[in-house]
Amino acid sequence: LDISRVQGETSPPTRDELYIIHDVLDPEQIFVPKVKKG
Q1: What does pTM read for this prediction?
Q2: What is the Cα–Cα distance from 25 to 5, expressed in whole angstroms?
């Protein structure tokens, strides 16, 4: 088993993925106000 490869595949979500997750979990911005993309 190539441990380094597994760790690479389980990398943290990208910034765009975080925005998508935010849209799904908090579309109305109830919990966290949406931060504008830089």
Answers
A1: 0.34
A2: 30
